Amino acid sequence: MNKTITVSAPGKLMLFGEHAVVYNRPCIVTAVDQRMRATVELVETPEFQLEAADVKVTGYKKALSELGKGDIPKGAQFVEIAVKNILQRHPELGSGSAGLRITTTSEFSSQFGFGSSSASTVCTIKAISELLALNLSQKELFDIAFKTVLDIQGKGSGFDVAAAIYGGTIYFVTGGKVIEPLQIPTLPLLVGYSGVKADTVTLINKVKETSDAYPEIIDGIYTNIEKLVERAKPAIIAQEWKTVGELMNINQGYLDALGVSTKKLATMIYSAKDAGAYGAKLSGAGGGDCIISLATDAQRNAVETAITQAGAEIVSVTTNAEGVRIEK
Ligand code: MEV
């Protein structure tokens, strides 16, 4: 049995369907090639040890029997609860004298909204599965990782967990009811970071408040988002970028109606469109994080300049990246 293993998983960008996907609707997500890594080692004390300098966690340790108890630093939550959940499923692992030392590193800032928490959860569970020869299937990995996210956040669709595991570009329905890889080459996306960190749960709660006040209207918006996701799926596969861009613009209109866009995001989006992009929208929960825009090679430079002039940072990514994999 190997004593150390390193696993990596990609970040993600939501293309269509955010928020509606929390409420039993589909979305489309692509994995990006900026990766999270976790190295898991067996140690000879029954402890959980964590080094996650990117999120300001160093020298953190705890008895395996104490996992999930007491104050957990924010940066340690997902990895600790992931270990707790896997030990709950396989209690034999926590009953001996061995423990685990986990080191995580990220190629992307946790500020971007690329799903660093989900990716580190997936890496941790996959690495333990390999290290201890549990042979978890992708669906079992999804179920434990999604449970971990829900244990901590209380809310979410699991699309980010699916992107970290399966990679590529995926059509996904809430909770993994459908996880369908779309066979496409890379997408002509440009990504701009607003400089503002968004909190997903706060935004989900904000949308819920609006939905409680105007249930039939908001439900209608979710249904229309579902329709545009269904329309976007074949358009993406056929690489009909003009149509995909137009659908992005419609999706952005609905996200604005849900109250999750901001003046900064809108400025970035209008700048991209004015510079010739086919379409642009926020990506993810809203409130900040990133916008995505769709531009041909000929439009790319002008759109990049426009997004930068709107005060954003261009984040260079390759989409459609490989899912979780063993590095060594
Ligand atoms: C956040 O990136 C996207 C949301 O739809 C939440 C989720 O699907 O888990 C708002």
Write up this protein:
- This protein has 328 residues and is an alpha+beta fold.
- Helix content is 41%, strand content 25%.
- It is built from nine helices and twelve strands.
- The protein has helices spanning 77-89, 116-131, 138-153, 159-166, 200-213, 215-237, 241-258, 263-274, 297-309; strands at 4-16, 26-43, 47-52, 57-63, 99-106, 169-173, 178-182, 189-193, 279-283, 290-294, 313-315, 325-326.
- Strands 1, 2, 3, 4, 5, 6, 7 and 12 form an eight-stranded mixed β-sheet that branches. Strands 9-10-8-11 form a four-stranded antiparallel β-sheet.
- A hairpin with a 4-residue loop joins strand 6 (169-173) and strand 7.
- Helix 1 crosses helix 3 (138-153).
- It is globular and about 60 Å long.
- It binds (R)-mevalonate (MEV).
Which properties best describe this structure?
alpha+beta; eight-stranded mixed sheet; four-stranded antiparallel sheet; 12 strands; 41% helix; globular; binds (R)-mevalonate
Concise account of the structure shown:
The chain has helices at 77-89, 116-131, 138-153, 159-166, 200-213, 215-237, 241-258, 263-274, 297-309; strands spanning 4-16, 26-43, 47-52, 57-63, 99-106, 169-173, 178-182, 189-193, 279-283, 290-294, 313-315, 325-326. The protein is of the alpha+beta class and 328 residues long.
